[in-house]
Amino acid sequence: MIKNNFSKNVLDVVKNIPKGSVLSYKEVAERAGNKKGARAVGAVLAKNYNKEIPCHRVIRSDGQLGGYNRGVGLKKKILKEEGYL
DNA sequence: CCCCTGACACTTA
DNA sequence: ATAAGTGCCAGGG
Protein backbone atom coordinates (compact mmCIF):
# COMPACT_ATOMS: atom_id res chain seq x y z
CA MET A 1 0.00 0.00 0.00
CA ILE A 2 2.19 2.83 1.17
CA LYS A 3 5.22 3.49 -1.07
CA ASN A 4 6.95 6.71 -0.08
CA ASN A 5 5.01 9.74 -1.15
CA PHE A 6 2.07 11.92 -0.20
CA SER A 7 0.16 8.97 1.28
CA LYS A 8 2.94 8.00 3.70
CA ASN A 9 3.45 11.64 4.58
CA VAL A 10 -0.22 12.06 5.40
CA LEU A 11 -0.23 8.99 7.62
CA ASP A 12 2.91 10.19 9.39
CA VAL A 13 1.44 13.63 10.06
CA VAL A 14 -1.84 12.20 11.38
CA LYS A 15 0.07 9.70 13.51
CA ASN A 16 1.99 12.61 15.02
CA ILE A 17 -1.13 14.51 16.09
CA PRO A 18 -1.05 14.90 19.91
CA LYS A 19 -4.00 13.78 22.02
CA GLY A 20 -6.63 16.46 22.51
CA SER A 21 -5.62 18.22 19.30
CA VAL A 22 -7.17 18.08 15.85
CA LEU A 23 -5.95 19.06 12.40
CA SER A 24 -8.10 19.87 9.40
CA TYR A 25 -7.64 17.92 6.16
CA LYS A 26 -6.24 21.10 4.64
CA GLU A 27 -3.66 21.46 7.43
CA VAL A 28 -2.61 17.85 7.07
CA ALA A 29 -2.37 18.28 3.31
CA GLU A 30 -0.04 21.24 3.74
CA ARG A 31 2.18 19.33 6.18
CA ALA A 32 2.10 16.33 3.84
CA GLY A 33 3.49 18.40 1.01
CA ASN A 34 0.37 19.24 -1.02
CA LYS A 35 -1.33 22.41 0.11
CA LYS A 36 -4.30 21.66 -2.14
CA GLY A 37 -4.48 17.95 -1.35
CA ALA A 38 -7.20 18.13 1.29
CA ARG A 39 -9.34 15.79 -0.81
CA ALA A 40 -6.40 13.48 -1.37
CA VAL A 41 -5.85 13.33 2.40
CA GLY A 42 -9.40 12.15 2.88
CA ALA A 43 -8.98 9.56 0.13
CA VAL A 44 -5.80 8.23 1.73
CA LEU A 45 -7.26 8.08 5.24
CA ALA A 46 -10.40 6.43 3.90
CA LYS A 47 -8.30 3.58 2.46
CA ASN A 48 -6.03 3.41 5.47
CA TYR A 49 -7.30 1.18 8.28
CA ASN A 50 -4.21 1.43 10.52
CA LYS A 51 -5.24 1.54 14.16
CA GLU A 52 -1.97 3.37 14.79
CA ILE A 53 -3.34 6.29 12.83
CA PRO A 54 -5.56 8.57 14.96
CA CYS A 55 -7.56 9.55 11.89
CA HIS A 56 -10.36 10.59 14.28
CA ARG A 57 -8.23 13.70 15.05
CA VAL A 58 -8.62 14.90 11.48
CA ILE A 59 -11.64 17.09 10.86
CA ARG A 60 -12.91 19.47 8.19
CA SER A 61 -11.64 23.05 7.98
CA ASP A 62 -15.19 24.16 8.78
CA GLY A 63 -14.92 22.56 12.19
CA GLN A 64 -17.19 19.68 11.17
CA LEU A 65 -16.13 16.12 11.97
CA GLY A 66 -16.17 15.04 8.36
CA GLY A 67 -16.17 11.26 8.32
CA TYR A 68 -14.56 8.17 9.84
CA ASN A 69 -13.83 4.67 8.55
CA ARG A 70 -15.23 3.12 11.76
CA GLY A 71 -18.30 5.37 11.87
CA VAL A 72 -18.70 9.09 12.54
CA GLY A 73 -20.45 8.27 15.83
CA LEU A 74 -17.31 6.58 17.11
CA LYS A 75 -15.18 9.50 15.96
CA LYS A 76 -17.38 11.97 17.81
CA LYS A 77 -17.27 9.77 20.90
CA ILE A 78 -13.49 9.52 20.81
CA LEU A 79 -13.05 13.28 20.43
CA LYS A 80 -15.33 13.76 23.43
CA GLU A 81 -13.31 11.25 25.43
CA GLU A 82 -10.11 13.09 24.53
CA GLY A 83 -11.60 16.37 25.64
CA TYR A 84 -11.88 18.13 22.30
CA LEU A 85 -15.67 18.13 22.50
C1' DC B 1 -3.72 7.52 -20.92
C1' DC B 2 -8.81 8.24 -19.86
C1' DC B 3 -12.72 7.95 -16.64
C1' DC B 4 -14.79 7.60 -12.09
C1' DT B 5 -14.86 7.93 -7.13
C1' DG B 6 -13.91 10.11 -2.55
C1' DA B 7 -13.56 11.08 5.17
C1' DC B 8 -12.34 18.36 1.12
C1' DA B 9 -12.09 23.72 0.36
C1' DC B 10 -13.57 27.86 -1.60
C1' DT B 11 -16.68 31.25 -4.10
C1' DT B 12 -21.00 33.03 -5.39
C1' DA B 13 -25.97 33.45 -5.03
C1' DA C 1 -26.76 30.28 7.34
C1' DT C 2 -27.71 27.05 3.34
C1' DA C 3 -27.35 25.46 -1.54
C1' DA C 4 -25.10 24.88 -5.79
C1' DG C 5 -21.14 25.03 -8.70
C1' DT C 6 -16.02 24.78 -9.41
C1' DG C 7 -11.24 23.37 -8.37
C1' DC C 8 -7.73 20.26 -6.30
C1' DC C 9 -5.31 15.80 -5.66
C1' DA C 10 -4.56 10.61 -5.23
C1' DG C 11 -6.08 5.79 -6.19
C1' DG C 12 -8.29 2.16 -8.94
C1' DG C 13 -10.25 0.08 -13.28
What does this structure look like?
By secondary structure, this protein is mostly helical. It has a single domain, classed as Orthogonal Bundle (Arc Repressor Mutant, subunit A), CATH 1.10.10.10. Helices cover 46% and strands 5% of the residues. It has helices spanning 6-15, 25-32, 38-47, 72-82, and strands spanning 23-24, 58-59. It has a two-stranded parallel ribbon. Helix 2 (25-32) crosses helix 3. The protein is globular and about 30 Å long. 25% of the residues are buried. The protein binds a DNA duplex (13 and 13 nucleotides) through helix 2, helix 3 and strand 2.
Task: Give me the CATH architecture, please.
Answer: Orthogonal Bundle
Count of separate structural domains: 1
Query: Count of DSSP E strands?
Result: 2
Question: In percent, how helical is the residue content?
Answer: 40-55%
Strand order of the largest sheet: 1-2
* H and E string: HEHHEH
- The quaternary organization reads as single chain
CATH superfamily: Winged helix-like DNA-binding domain superfamily/Winged helix DNA-binding domain
User: Low-confidence spans: pLDDT under 50, at least 5 residues?
Assistant: none
Mean pLDDT: 92
Key terms:
85 residues, mainly alpha, 46% helix, globular
Compact description:
The protein is mainly α and 85 residues long.
Q: Topology of this protein?
A:
Blueprint: H1 6-15, E1 23-24, H2 25-32, H3 38-47, E2 58-59, H4 72-82
Parallel strand pairs: 1-2
This protein binds a DNA duplex (13 and 13 nucleotides) through residues 5-7, 24-26, 29, 34-47, 55, 58-62, 65-69, 72, 75.
